[in-house]
């Protein structure tokens, strides 16, 4: 159990599945706001299991204890909300 996050990459017009385990959810909840643009550092990349696959991308981003989320306030790219 945990939180599923979808990352939009405007440069290649793709979506990547992100996952925050329930044990870490309370730590990251204040940084997660609908529609916000964030920079994520220090995460783990893994192959996406077909059992939990929600998108076509073969990889997923896992939030681990050193993961840092910073909201991008200035210079943020525009994301096409239709994507």
User: What is the CATH homology-level superfamily?
Assistant: Nucleic acid-binding proteins
CATH architecture: Beta Barrel
Given the C-alpha coordinates, what overall shape results? Answer: globular
Terminal-residue CA separation:
27 Å
Domain Replication protein A 70 kDa DNA-binding subunit B/D first OB fold: 3-70
InterPro entries: RFA1B/D_OB_1st (IPR003871)
Organism: Brassica oleracea var. oleracea
Protein name: Replication protein A 70 kDa DNA-binding subunit B/D first OB fold domain-containing protein
Which features characterize this protein?
83 residues; mainly beta; four-stranded mixed sheet; 1 helix; 47% strand; Replication protein A 70 kDa DNA-binding subunit B/D first OB fold domain-containing protein; RFA1B/D_OB_1st
In a few lines, what is going on in this structure?
This protein is mainly β. It has a single domain (2-71), classed as Beta Barrel (OB fold (Dihydrolipoamide Acetyltransferase, E2P)), CATH 2.40.50. The protein has one helix and four strands.
Could you describe the 3D structure shown?
- The longest helix has 7 residues, at 22-28.
- The protein has 1 helix and 4 strands, in the order ββαββ.
- It has one domain: Nucleic acid-binding proteins (OB fold (Dihydrolipoamide Acetyltransferase, E2P), Beta Barrel).
- It is globular, with a radius of gyration of 13 Å.
- It is mainly beta.
- It starts with a strand and ends in a 12-residue tail after the last strand.
- This is Replication protein A 70 kDa DNA-binding subunit B/D first OB fold domain-containing protein.
- InterPro entries: RFA1B/D_OB_1st.
- Residues 3-70 form the Replication protein A 70 kDa DNA-binding subunit B/D first OB fold domain.
- Pfam families: DUF223.
